[in-house]
Fold this protein.
Amino acid sequence: MVRMIGTIWIQSLIFLVILILLVKPLGEYMARVYRNERTLLDALVRPIERWIYRAAGVNADVEMDWKTYALAMLVFNALGLFAVYALERAQGFLPLNPQSLGAVSPDLAFNTAVSFATNTNWQSYSGEMTMSYLTQMLGLTVQNFVSAATGMAVLVALIRGLTRTPSRHPAPGRERAREGVGNFWVDLTRGTLYILLPLSFILALALVSQGVVQTLSASQTVPLLQPARDANGNAITEQIIALGPAASQIAIKELGTNGGGFFGANSAHPFENPTPLSNLLEMLAILLIPAALTYTFGKMVGDTRQGWALLIAMTLVFVAMLGLAWWTEQAGNPNLATLDVDQTASDLQSGGNMEGKETRFGVVNSVLWAVATTAASNGSVNAMHDSLMPLGGLSVMWLMQLGEVIFGGVGSGLYGMLAFVIIAVFIAGLLVGRTPEYLGKKIEAYEMKMAALIVLIPPILVLAGTAIAVVIPAGVSALVNPGAHGFSEILYAFSSAGNNNGSAFAGLAANNLFYNVSLGFTMLIARYWLAIPTLAIAGALARKKKIPASAGTLPTHTPLFIGWLIGVVIIVGALSFFPALALGPIVEQLMLR
């Protein structure tokens, strides 16, 4: 037993060590990409980049103010949303549909189009039974790339706002350039071509080598080795094996913190995640870019200590939630213990609560994935979160409810954390009676108002949506489980949509008009009503002069500030969600005893 527990922690430690070792090289590379410096891929990619600008009529040298940047982002994302919706509705008449799947219903098509455009990838459907190959490739996979690149672009715009200062005597026409936050089209293009595409190509090849399918062949029918019977007692002698171009979508679903599965079982499916090595690679991919962006941030602001401080804060909360989830899952289910079911870890079994988990991965890899996917704004799963013990479900649910800032989505996680940094700095300044400042920029009322919107909008969406769902028939009729666990399923769904995560408790039949529409609008607001205030902060900071550091300046890279930042994040999360969590997973845990 002791040896088994030691092996568990060694696996988790190896995962974290590999992740942290990759932070600096990838983070430095991404900083070079967004500063338009020379990279190893220039000879291959630069001509493609220039061709895209010419074809689209983009002047890459023109800077945008934050409003123009936000407008470009909204227009581009709206066009992508409409394109995915149209593909879903017309897929029955389009090619690359070997299963002859018909049109997706209007409400589900709306929900899915919003989900993939907002980098949420919530799925109220089973992919292999609903979406054609063309819809998966041209619609969903493309959005996996550009929605991730959009999040990174908004982050980079905020970083520029923190680093730029207006010139005292600018040349005519240069005021706007100095106070601009970049060019959205350039940031979108470079993030896609130089970062997401190369990483996805490498990961897709690695996954194919492990047995992940990548084919345009139709589903195959194979005979069963041992006949079975259906619910009516009829003999079943064959099985349909779903295939498709899965590896290419899985690579970007993890790297872009998208999470949408090609198959309904997501990464619990053996064709999406067949081996321990594929499992490790996919878990690393979930956190790789969000973690590395902290170093990118430090590099671009000229002080890598700032990036390391944010990474340490994220990692400490991540490890704490991982410990809670692992402890409660490894302890097993007390109801099964009363039936003399052996749940003890040994050399022959992982032990603990194995309900809803793959025997290939056991408790540790299932819990590690569950915590990683909800810490990041990913949403992919290799085990069913609905089968987690109550406190295990609480740990992954609360990571989303913190605002998806513990690593979070690519770009969106870090700019969400920077909103918390602004709040932490502002509160600290008030405590000592000094004007708050961060990286030499004064934090004043306008920045605080925008940061407050970023922090408060997700809890409002989650709690209001949950409250409505539990009091109307359309909301409660979709529940399979009554009582505290049913409440947790609804709370989890809105927590996932309101924080652009995409994972789900499986006991909620969410493919109906109410949930498709309500969760769709929740995802829309949670994505863009946070991105726009972030860009507004970037624009406000870009217009401010830098203040030299003095004896009264609050250092934002020290252990003291790291602890203070963690405290602010946790306090906001606890005050917002503790009453709701008490009605769901907490009371469910007490009922077990």
